[in-house]
Design brief:
By secondary structure, the protein is mostly helical. It has helices spanning 14-27, 50-53, 61-69, 83-88, 98-111, 118-137; strands at 3-4, 11-12, 95-96, 141-142.
Length: 144
Protein backbone atom coordinates (compact mmCIF):
# COMPACT_ATOMS: atom_id res chain seq x y z
CA UNK A 1 0.00 0.00 0.00
CA UNK A 2 1.21 3.50 -0.74
CA UNK A 3 0.40 6.67 -2.56
CA UNK A 4 -0.90 6.53 -6.10
CA UNK A 5 -1.74 9.54 -8.18
CA UNK A 6 -3.50 9.83 -11.47
CA UNK A 7 -1.60 10.49 -14.69
CA UNK A 8 1.34 8.35 -13.49
CA UNK A 9 2.82 11.23 -11.50
CA UNK A 10 3.55 9.10 -8.44
CA UNK A 11 3.29 5.45 -7.43
CA UNK A 12 5.16 4.62 -4.25
CA UNK A 13 5.42 4.68 -0.50
CA UNK A 14 4.06 7.58 1.53
CA UNK A 15 7.43 7.82 3.27
CA UNK A 16 9.21 8.14 -0.09
CA UNK A 17 6.77 10.87 -1.12
CA UNK A 18 7.57 12.79 2.06
CA UNK A 19 11.32 12.38 1.50
CA UNK A 20 10.84 13.65 -2.04
CA UNK A 21 8.83 16.67 -0.88
CA UNK A 22 11.55 17.45 1.68
CA UNK A 23 14.05 17.36 -1.19
CA UNK A 24 11.85 19.62 -3.30
CA UNK A 25 11.54 22.13 -0.45
CA UNK A 26 15.29 22.12 0.09
CA UNK A 27 16.02 22.54 -3.63
CA UNK A 28 13.56 25.45 -3.69
CA UNK A 29 15.37 27.13 -0.80
CA UNK A 30 12.41 26.78 1.55
CA UNK A 31 12.59 26.08 5.27
CA UNK A 32 12.59 22.38 6.21
CA UNK A 33 9.06 21.00 5.76
CA UNK A 34 9.20 19.52 9.25
CA UNK A 35 9.12 23.07 10.65
CA UNK A 36 6.27 24.27 8.42
CA UNK A 37 2.61 24.72 9.22
CA UNK A 38 0.83 21.42 8.68
CA UNK A 39 3.94 19.35 9.35
CA UNK A 40 5.44 20.61 12.60
CA UNK A 41 4.74 18.56 15.72
CA UNK A 42 6.52 19.72 18.88
CA UNK A 43 8.71 16.88 20.13
CA UNK A 44 12.18 16.16 21.36
CA UNK A 45 12.77 13.59 18.60
CA UNK A 46 15.62 14.80 16.44
CA UNK A 47 13.72 14.89 13.12
CA UNK A 48 11.11 17.40 14.32
CA UNK A 49 13.07 19.11 17.07
CA UNK A 50 13.80 22.61 15.74
CA UNK A 51 17.30 22.58 17.16
CA UNK A 52 18.09 19.66 14.83
CA UNK A 53 17.73 22.01 11.84
CA UNK A 54 19.79 24.88 13.23
CA UNK A 55 22.64 22.89 14.73
CA UNK A 56 21.29 23.55 18.18
CA UNK A 57 23.51 21.33 20.30
CA UNK A 58 24.47 23.47 23.24
CA UNK A 59 21.97 26.24 22.44
CA UNK A 60 20.97 28.39 25.37
CA UNK A 61 17.57 27.48 26.82
CA UNK A 62 16.17 30.94 26.04
CA UNK A 63 17.18 30.61 22.38
CA UNK A 64 15.52 27.21 22.13
CA UNK A 65 12.37 28.61 23.75
CA UNK A 66 12.31 31.57 21.34
CA UNK A 67 12.76 29.25 18.37
CA UNK A 68 10.01 26.89 19.53
CA UNK A 69 7.60 29.79 20.12
CA UNK A 70 8.01 30.93 16.51
CA UNK A 71 6.97 27.52 15.15
CA UNK A 72 5.39 26.32 13.03
CA UNK A 73 6.48 28.56 10.18
CA UNK A 74 3.44 29.90 8.35
CA UNK A 75 3.26 29.40 4.59
CA UNK A 76 1.80 32.92 4.46
CA UNK A 77 5.14 34.53 5.28
CA UNK A 78 6.78 33.05 2.19
CA UNK A 79 6.73 34.55 -1.27
CA UNK A 80 3.79 32.74 -2.95
CA UNK A 81 4.80 30.00 -5.36
CA UNK A 82 2.62 27.39 -7.10
CA UNK A 83 4.92 24.79 -5.53
CA UNK A 84 3.41 25.49 -2.11
CA UNK A 85 0.17 23.77 -3.13
CA UNK A 86 2.06 20.53 -3.76
CA UNK A 87 4.12 20.82 -0.59
CA UNK A 88 1.05 21.54 1.58
CA UNK A 89 -1.14 18.93 -0.10
CA UNK A 90 -2.41 15.85 1.69
CA UNK A 91 -0.39 12.80 0.76
CA UNK A 92 -3.34 10.43 0.84
CA UNK A 93 -6.33 12.06 -0.84
CA UNK A 94 -7.60 15.08 -2.69
CA UNK A 95 -6.57 16.57 -5.98
CA UNK A 96 -4.73 19.41 -7.63
CA UNK A 97 -6.94 21.39 -9.99
CA UNK A 98 -5.99 21.22 -13.68
CA UNK A 99 -5.35 24.97 -13.86
CA UNK A 100 -2.72 24.60 -11.08
CA UNK A 101 -0.95 21.59 -12.59
CA UNK A 102 0.96 23.56 -15.25
CA UNK A 103 2.34 26.21 -12.89
CA UNK A 104 3.40 23.55 -10.37
CA UNK A 105 5.08 21.58 -13.18
CA UNK A 106 6.94 24.74 -14.24
CA UNK A 107 8.22 25.30 -10.69
CA UNK A 108 9.28 21.66 -10.31
CA UNK A 109 10.97 21.57 -13.68
CA UNK A 110 13.24 24.46 -12.67
CA UNK A 111 14.29 22.45 -9.61
CA UNK A 112 15.27 19.23 -11.38
CA UNK A 113 18.97 20.23 -11.73
CA UNK A 114 19.04 21.08 -8.00
CA UNK A 115 17.61 17.77 -6.79
CA UNK A 116 20.22 15.94 -4.70
CA UNK A 117 20.30 12.53 -6.40
CA UNK A 118 19.69 11.06 -9.86
CA UNK A 119 16.71 9.13 -8.42
CA UNK A 120 15.15 12.33 -7.07
CA UNK A 121 15.69 13.99 -10.45
CA UNK A 122 13.92 11.09 -12.18
CA UNK A 123 11.01 11.14 -9.72
CA UNK A 124 10.65 14.90 -10.14
CA UNK A 125 10.64 14.55 -13.93
CA UNK A 126 7.94 11.85 -13.70
CA UNK A 127 5.84 14.09 -11.45
CA UNK A 128 6.26 17.00 -13.89
CA UNK A 129 5.16 14.73 -16.75
CA UNK A 130 2.08 13.66 -14.78
CA UNK A 131 1.17 17.25 -13.95
CA UNK A 132 1.58 18.29 -17.60
CA UNK A 133 -0.58 15.39 -18.79
CA UNK A 134 -3.32 16.31 -16.30
CA UNK A 135 -3.17 19.97 -17.39
CA UNK A 136 -3.25 19.02 -21.08
CA UNK A 137 -6.35 16.87 -20.54
CA UNK A 138 -7.99 19.49 -18.32
CA UNK A 139 -8.22 16.94 -15.50
CA UNK A 140 -7.20 17.22 -11.86
CA UNK A 141 -4.20 15.30 -10.59
CA UNK A 142 -5.82 12.97 -8.06
CA UNK A 143 -4.17 11.58 -4.93
CA UNK A 144 -5.48 8.21 -3.75
Amino acid sequence: MGLDTSHNAWHGAYSAFMRWRRGVAKAAGLPPLDLMEGFYIPTTESRTNPTFFVGGKGMDDWRIKMLEESLPISWGILKPDPLHELLCHSDCDGQIAPENCGPIADSLERLIPKMPTPDMKDVTKAFVDGLRLAAQKGEPLAFR
